[in-house]
Amino acid sequence: MHTLASQVAVVTGAARGTGEAIARRLAAMGAHVVLIARSVDQLNQVRERIVAAGGSASVLSCDLMDASAVAGFGRAFTQQHARCDILVNNAGVGMEGKFLHEVTPAEWDQVFATNLRGPYLMMRAVVPLMIAARSGHIINISSLAGRNPLPKGAAYAASKWGLNGLTYSVAEELRQFNIRVSVIAPGSINTDFSDHAGRGAASGKDPNKKLQPDDIASVVATLVTQSPQSFISEVLMRPTQKP
After folding, report:
1. Which residues lie below 8 Å from residue 79, measured CB to CB, with a gap of 6+?
2. Is residue 57 part of a domain?
3. What is the pTM of this model?
4. 161 near 212, Cβ under 8 Å?
5. Which of 93, 109, 64 is closest to 193 using CA atoms?
6. How does DSSP classify residue 179?
7. Which sign, positive or negative, has the C-alpha torsion 150, 156, 158, 164?
8. 37 within a domain of the structure (yes/no)
9. Which terminal residue of the chain, N or C, has fewer Cβ atoms less than 10 Å from its own Cβ?
10. How many domains does the chain have?
């Protein structure tokens, strides 16, 4: 296994599901993982599981929808660690299936604040550390909904289309500093997140046929251990069998 010893990784939405799986994988590879979410209690439970498995992790509570809170995180993080080797923007929200004209402005703002503005704010907070080190990897967790039409999920899809565009553009900005920026776009994942705008459990999909959180964690592990002369800019993931 490739080692990430002495590296510091930040994972948002790390309190459960895919975020927890990613955090545990990076910790198992030797990184110190900083767990980010709003729920301190859940984050502490994840940290305890990582430590029990022999890994290293710490907790920083942060509301990604609050620009001042993310800026405060950036200052605290820089003071505590002074480096950021890996940033995984995993936190995201879906919506119950609605026609676009039924979506309220507040619902629209919540989706975009979490799925698109949050990654922007996190990059703004830690990219200066990566530039100073002339090294780093940013991974944004998007969705296949960011590449395909999604009726009754237009706000969610639009936020993920936006995240893809953000990723590709920032990747070009940061290549000169030896910073790699990648996007992972999975299909249905077996978590308690409402996959693709609320069409989860109620859809009757077989959870065993869905992608599992560890599947996404395995791709993250691959991305952060690539040879230095190249990088995978985009990964599309689908279940082998339709759930």
Report:
1. none
2. yes
3. 0.93
4. no
5. 93
6. E
7. negative
8. yes
9. N
10. 1
Task: Tell me how far apart the alpha carbons of residues 135 and 119 are, in angstroms, rounded to a whole number.
Answer: 19
Segment 189-234, tens digit of pLDDT: 877 654 434 444 445 678 888 899 999 999 999 999 999 899 999 9
Residues 6 or more apart from 195 whose CB is under 8 A from it?
A: 94, 188, 189, 210
Amino acid at position 169, single letter: S
Structure tokens belonging to residue 188: 């249905």
Range of the domain at 28: 8-226
How far apart CA 239 and CA 243 sit, in angstroms, is 7
Which two structure tokens, joined as six digits, stand for 98? 């609605």
Burial of 36 (0-12, 13-18, 19+ CB in 10 A): buried
**CATH number where 30 lies:** 3.40.50.720
Note the pLDDT tens digit of each residue in 20-42. Answer: 999 999 999 999 999 999 999 99
Q: Could you tell me if residue 3 is inside a domain?
A: no
Residue with tokens 């994942």: 189
Which amino acid is present at 137? H
The catalytic residue positions are 156
Region class of 196: left (phi > 0), else alpha (psi between -120 and 50), else beta: left
| Residue positions counted in the chain | 243
Q: Are 21 and 48 in contact (CB under 8 A)?
A: no
Residue 119 lies in a domain: yes
Three-state secondary structure call for residue 174: helix
